[in-house]
Structures are given as C-alpha cells and as structure tokens.
C-alpha cells in the first residue's frame, strides 16, 4: 500500500505548488436504502429470504486555474445479512493536471472502456465490486498513474497500475454467492510480487466520422480470478473440497471496441484476444501452471424509435450476440448466448426509464431475465426497481448455476443531498 500513499502524496505536492487564482468546488452526496426479497428457498441453511442494506456515496470535486483538480469519492455499505457485503471503499481519490495537450492523473480512480450493453469484455482497468451487483457494473477504485495525450480527434492513454485490488465475494450468509465459501484472505498469485505487481496498459481512442473506436493493450494481473478447489476432506463419496481459493494469473489482453452510428441505429462491437496463466488441477497431482490463449467477442445493435405514439416516449430495441472460444470453460458464463432487450425512456421531468431483457444460452437452454426501472419521486429522491430471474439453468453454466435459486426483486430508495 506504500505505493498508493506515494502516488497520492506526489499529486498533492504538485497541487500545493499550483497557484489558486480561480477556485471552484462541489460536494455531492447520496445515500440509498436497499431491500431485496428472494421468493425461492435458499440453497444453504445460513441464507435468509431477504436482504436489507444502506449505502453512502459522497464526491468532493475541487478545481483551480481551470487546469488542476482533486476528486475524492468514498463509498460505504452496511448489509444486515452479509458481513462480506458490508465494506468501505475509496472509489476515487486523485489529482489531475492539464498541461497543454497532456493530462496527468495521479491517485485512485475509475476508468470505463466499452460499447456493448450486457457484457464489457474490454473493461479491464478496475476490479469488479462483485458484492454490489451481479451485473459487473460496480468497480473498486484502482491506484494509477495515467497520461492522456489529445491529438486532434484521437487520444493516446498510458497507464501504470502499481497495486492490485482483489475481487470481493459474498459471504456464507449472503445470497448470490459461490457454491462454496471463498477464501478471500488466502488468494494465490502467479506473480511473486502478488498485489504489488506493476500492471500497465495503453489505449488509443477517437472518432472517425460516425465511428467511435478504441484499441488497447493490457499486461498484468487478471481481474477475474480462477476459483480452485481447496480444503479437501475425505468423505464416503471420495475427496471433496469445502472451500474455493482464488488464483490470480498473469494476463495479456489485446482489445478493440467500436460503435458506428447510422441514423437511429447504433452498431456495437467488443472483442478481445487474451493469453492467461491458469492452474490445471488433476486428481492426485499438484496443480500445474499452464498458459492458455483464446478469443471472445460480443456485438450487436440498438435501434431507437423517437416520440412513439406522438408522445415524448422513446423505445429502443437491443440485440447482442456473445461468443467465447473457451466454450464450457468460459468464466463469464457467456460462450454462445443471445441477448434481447428493450429500453424505454419517458423523457419526463421525473426521468422515468426501464430496461428489460433476456439472455438465452443457445447451447444449453438456460435463461436469465433482467428488468431495471427507475423514476424520481421529486427533485432529490429516486426510486429504483430491479428484478433478476434465473430459468432452466444448466449445470455447465458456471456463472448462473450457483444462483439458480436466487431469483430476487430489489427496491432502492436514493436520496441526493
């Protein structure tokens, strides 16, 4: 962690030597009360049929001389049922300076890469905060040094990532958990530097007419861990694991993402090629390190009809195909899947929106249904609804099979201060 402190100290030292002729600051805070109900019987005796939690997110932004800024965004959640879901994270804490065409960022930050709706294959910089939601959208803050060069309609970004964040998992009492307890304090690493391994990335992104594109290279520790059978005990049915141990191998990733706009159509693509270190587990033998390389891609379209039925409503139709060369070994659960969805936007003062979709496994017949809706109750309060359903889940669906009894409906009340 000393590298993080050094990065922050360097940024604040630079800031202290910057003149403050023009100063602007803003503080935004939101708290949320979240309630989940699980209608199906829990798979494990320690799990409950409901889950109640409260979260707080605050962001302070300060800017001076128009070229220098500091952003601090702490996040905290308390969950009444799952101790592992109760956590505090510094989502962002960075200094940023602009020097002509070059932008320098030092500290803890979040970076998003991607174009498609369901799965962001190319999004590799930040670790997923997996206890927040299964959709993978929530991220932990990542210590970084980032340089961004603006070159006309193209920008070139370079990242140095001096510290690795491990993925959090739901605890034994939580729903939406792995089939066995995860040994989160006993992770294994391919690199002897473990969390101090220096990762790096470079990215080119820009516009060419109606095309919005990004091309990137990442080399470092894989964000998605391999879960290994651990704590083996002898049973009448033979040796059985009683826990899962995370293994973080080294990963090289070449990625491309693109979006092309044609009238009311958005054509989207994300594709990756990866070379990754994994541990092969064979019965009666010690795990062996192997290197695997594979490709994966997702792509599709979104078509929007504006002002339907002579109203302010817009309706979008989405379709995406997801492919992974690893087939049953795909750790994201999408190896040959089709995603269909519709997006509604009322364009009213209360910002009413709805996104409903289904993911269909074309090999196994598994179905995952998702509905997300939100509406402001007034100028500072929002009510959100989330529904997740798992149907006909095949045992080979490694992502969804442990969740087959975890259908849930969630209500969240958010207050903006």
TrEMBL record:
Protein's UniProt keywords contain Signal: yes
**Origin, by domain of life?**
Bacteria
| UniProt keywords, alphabetically | Signal
Q: Does the keyword Signal apply?
A: yes
Cleavable signal peptide: 1-20
Name of the protein in question: Alginate export domain-containing protein
């Amino acid at each position: 962690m000393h590298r993080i402190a050094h990065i922050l100290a360097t940024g604040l030292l630079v800031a202290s030597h910057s003149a403050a002729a023009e100063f602007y600051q803003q503080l935004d805070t939101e708290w949320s009360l979240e309630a989940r109900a699980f209608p199906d019987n829990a798979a494990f005796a320690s799990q409950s049929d409901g889950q109640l939690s409260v979260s707080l997110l605050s962001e302070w932004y300060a800017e001076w001389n128009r070229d220098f800024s500091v952003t601090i965004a702490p996040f905290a959640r308390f969950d009444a049922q799952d101790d592992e879901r109760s956590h505090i994270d510094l989502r962002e804490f960075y200094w940023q300076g602009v020097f002509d065409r070059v932008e320098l960022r030092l500290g803890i930050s979040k970076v998003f890469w991607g174009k498609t709706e369901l799965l962001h294959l190319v999004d590799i910089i930040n670790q997923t905060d997996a206890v927040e939601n299964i959709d993978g959208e929530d991220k932990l803050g990542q210590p970084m040094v980032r340089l961004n060069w603006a070159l006309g309609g193209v920008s070139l970004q370079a990242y140095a990532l001096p510290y690795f964040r491990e993925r959090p998992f739901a605890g034994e009492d939580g729903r939406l958990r792995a089939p066995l307890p995860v040994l989160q304090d006993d992770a294994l690493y391919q690199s002897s530097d473990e969390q101090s391994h220096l990762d790096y990335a470079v990215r080119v992104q820009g516009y060419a007419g109606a095309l919005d594109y990004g091309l990137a290279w990442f080399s470092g520790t894989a964000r998605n861990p391999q879960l290994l059978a651990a704590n083996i005990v002898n049973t009448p049915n033979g040796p059985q694991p009683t826990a899962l141990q995370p293994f973080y191998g080294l990963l090289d990733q070449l990625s491309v993402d693109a979006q092309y706009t044609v009238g009311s159509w958005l054509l989207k693509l994300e594709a990756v090629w990866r070379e990754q270190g994994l541990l092969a587990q064979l019965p009666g033998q010690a795990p062996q390190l192997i290197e695997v390389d594979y490709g994966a891609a997702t792509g599709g379209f979104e078509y929007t009809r504006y002002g339907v039925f002579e109203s302010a409503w817009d309706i979008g139709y989405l379709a995406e195909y997801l492919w992974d060369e690893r087939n049953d070994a795909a750790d994201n659960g999408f190896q040959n899947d089709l995603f269909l969805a519709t997006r509604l936007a009322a364009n009213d003062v209360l910002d009413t929106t709805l996104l409903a979709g289904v993911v269909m496994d074309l090999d196994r017949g598994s179905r995952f249904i998702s509905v997300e809706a939100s509406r402001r109750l007034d100028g500072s309060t929002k009510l959100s609804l989330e529904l997740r359903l798992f149907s006909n889940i095949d045992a080979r669906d490694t992502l969804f099979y442990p969740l087959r009894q975890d259908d849930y409906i969630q209500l969240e009340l958010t207050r903006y201060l």
